[in-house]
Write a structure and sequence with these properties.
Strand 4, helix 5 and strand 5 form a beta-alpha-beta unit. The protein is an alpha/beta fold and 324 residues long. Helices cover 42% and strands 16% of the residues. The strands form 3 sheets. Strands 2-1-3-4-5-9 form a 6-stranded parallel sheet, with helices on both faces. It contains 11 helices and 12 strands. Helix 2 runs parallel beside helix 4, helix 6 crosses helix 9 and helix 6 packs across helix 11. It has a domain of 220 residues: Rossmann fold. The longest helix is centred in the first third of the chain and has 21 residues.
Length: 324
């Protein structure tokens, strides 16, 4: 493992769920010089502003966790925003990092880069082998572009820009918007409100049959730092010039129905679960093949129920802070 605790590290997107977890992880590992910049200080969609920021700060490493994210409803409703903002953010940061001589960068993508009907569990080699899920295609294309940007700067300029593709993430600082959030925060909030209202039932989007894999964000942060600290020779030995990303997941999945039943237990809801099959299900199954990451010495440690308890505890204790 390569660790230089004096490195100046920029965590782009530090106020988000993933970025804040990476900051926590880096701090716990002893890194002292962590740079962060909020939207009021730096607009990542503004190329000139990003270039100026890199010129004025001597940066050794970048964690590119900034992104415009959301669930099925948000992706369906705001496709232009999802593709434009994400393309601009990643292109601006990667180019500015290169221009400023930053050698090490980690790009965080998403499991939605893989084809809708990819063979399960999804291997890294499945990238660009089939049609994407229609509901989040613009977001997925932006994330694929980020991978290819990193690959291209590595090939042309000899940079060490790495990419990790997380499965569905959840945990502290998640987005709990009733319509624009991902499935776990949406359900945690819905069940919490149902308990408060003493409701008899909770309605869940879709049939409940799709299978999903979930990873606590603290596990994702630990994996990200692990991959970033890997010796360059070891990292390259486990990737390929045209396949330079690594899956990050738990390697375990469950149905949406099973997830809802677990969340009901975590929140104390004892009513009826109603599945609204008129709502879109999205991809039938999404499970990551994480064998490559295991070969590199890392695997997840937080199981789903314990992770959900932690996420729910944070939600209850931080009502004034949650993004709604």
């Amino acid at each position: 493992m390569h660790r230089c605790l004096d490195d100046v590290i920029l965590v782009a997107g530090h106020r988000g769920m993933v970025g804040s977890a990476i900051v926590r992880r880096l701090s716990s590992q002893g890194y002292q010089n962590i740079l962060t910049a909020g939207r009021d200080e730096l607009d990542l969609v503004n190329q000139a502003a990003v270039n100026a920021y890199f010129r004025h700060n001597k940066i050794d490493q970048v964690y590119l966790a900034a992104a415009k994210v959301g669930g099925i409803h948000a992706n369906n409703t705001y496709p232009a925003g999802f593709i434009y903002d994400n393309l601009m953010i990643e292109a601006n940061i990667i180019q500015a990092a290169h221009s400023a001589g930053v050698q090490k960068l980690l790009f965080l993508g998403s499991s939605c880069i893989y084809p809708k009907n990819a063979e399960q569990p999804m291997k890294e080699a499945a990238l660009l082998t089939g049609v994407l899920e229609a509901t989040n295609e613009p977001y997925a294309i932006a994330k694929i572009a980020g991978i290819k940007l990193c690959e291209s700067y590595n090939r042309q300029y000899g940079r060490d820009y790495r990419s990790v593709m997380p499965t569905n993430l959840y945990g502290p600082h998640d987005n709990y918007h009733p319509e624009n959030s991902h499935v776990i925060p949406a359900l945690l909030r819905r069940f919490h409100e149902a308990v408060k209202a003493q409701a008899d039932e909770v309605v869940i989007w879709g049939s409940g049959t799709p299978m999903r894999e979930f990873l606590h964000v603290d596990d994702m942060a630990a994996a990200s730092v692990h991959v970033m600290e890997l010796d360059a020779v070891l990292y390259k030995a486990n990737t390929q010039p045209m396949l330079s990303h690594i899956n990050v997941g738990s390697g375990v999945d469950c149905t949406i129905r099973e997830l809802a039943e677990t969340i009901a237990r975590v929140t104390g809801f004892t009513g009826k679960l109603v599945f609204d099959a008129s709502k879109p299900d999205g991809t039938p199954r999404k499970l990551m093949d994480v064998s490559r990451l295991k070969n590199l010495g890392w695997q997840s440690k937080i199981d789903l129920k314990a992770g959900l308890c932690d996420a729910y505890k944070w939600f209850v204790e931080n009502q004034s802070e949650i993004r709604v």
